[in-house]
Request: fold
Amino acid sequence: MLLNIKSLLHSSRAVLALNGGLMIILGGAFWLLPDFFTLAMFPHISENDTAIDVANALRKNMGAGCVFVGVILFSCQDSSKYTAQRLLFSSAVGFLLMFSALLHMRVSGQASVPIFILLFFGSLSLLSLVVASRRYQE
Reply:
């Protein structure tokens, strides 16, 4: 197990595949369970059917966007080392932006963003940045 984690930290391509796979799963969850995510983040709109419909439509669009990004990341795992590192660094920045926006919404009270989602994007950002910045890659 420890050997697998160590080898993961030396492979931009493996982390690209991991990030892509996780984004595809997250996108599928947003698409299949929009009510769950909508009511988890905005419990105060549970009585407003129009607000729920709008939020669910936005959640499904976000799910499609997550799958789109996930497919791109996953399909780039066969890139050269240099390209994989650049893509991984770019995805680290993107995940950091997602983390920042979600944290802002939680702190400002605009949405009840689950801690798990904050940890998810924060961890992906940190892992991507660490691996992309490593000098010696497989």
The radius of gyration is 17 Å. The helical segments are 2-8, 12-32, 34-41, 49-75, 81-108, 115-133. The mean pLDDT is 90.
